[in-house]
Amino acid sequence: MPPAGKPFVELPFPPRTYDIDFAGVVNNAVFIRWLEDLRLALMAKIYPIDRALRDDAAPILLSTHIAYDKPVTIQDAGLVGRMWVPRMERVKWHVAAEFAVGDVVHARAEQVGLFIRLSTRRPIAPPAPLRARYGQ
Q1: Number of domains observed in the structure of the chain
Q2: pTM score
């Protein structure tokens, strides 16, 4: 769970037949797509991607780390993903996520990213609305 008092987003992720690999579990690559959905949801209400693009800004990923604690199968219909921002730096922002069914965490992830000015491809500070909502 996100730390108490930290704002977070939560989305349902019911596994689909096309998410399942030959071993009968959700393929690891699917979690990358789900992390993207969570990051966009994290931004959606306060700094949606269409506003970022109008502002000549775009989020860029620098790294992703995922720990797969327990396989997710097609029977895990109650799977939810949660994401929060544990740290925001001058240029980089860090997000953490978990995928759980009830109290059982199936996977945990951490990502580091930054924003760039699209016209110059140079890093910029995280946009003010994100800093105001998720900064320390």
Answers
A1: 1
A2: 0.93
Helix (H, G, I), strand (E, B) or coil at 123: strand
Q: Which amino acid is at 66?
A: I
Cα distances from 77 to residues 2, 99, 129, in angstroms, run 21, 12, 34
Instruction: Say which CATH number the domain at 125 has.
Output: 3.10.129.10
CB atoms inside a 10 Å sphere around CB 64: 15
Q: Is residue 3 part of a domain?
A: no
Residue range of the domain that includes 55: 8-134
Here the tokens at position 78 are 């109650």
pLDDT, tens only, 27-70: 999 999 999 999 999 999 899 999 999 999 999 999 999 999 99
Residue 54 is assigned to a structural domain of this protein: yes
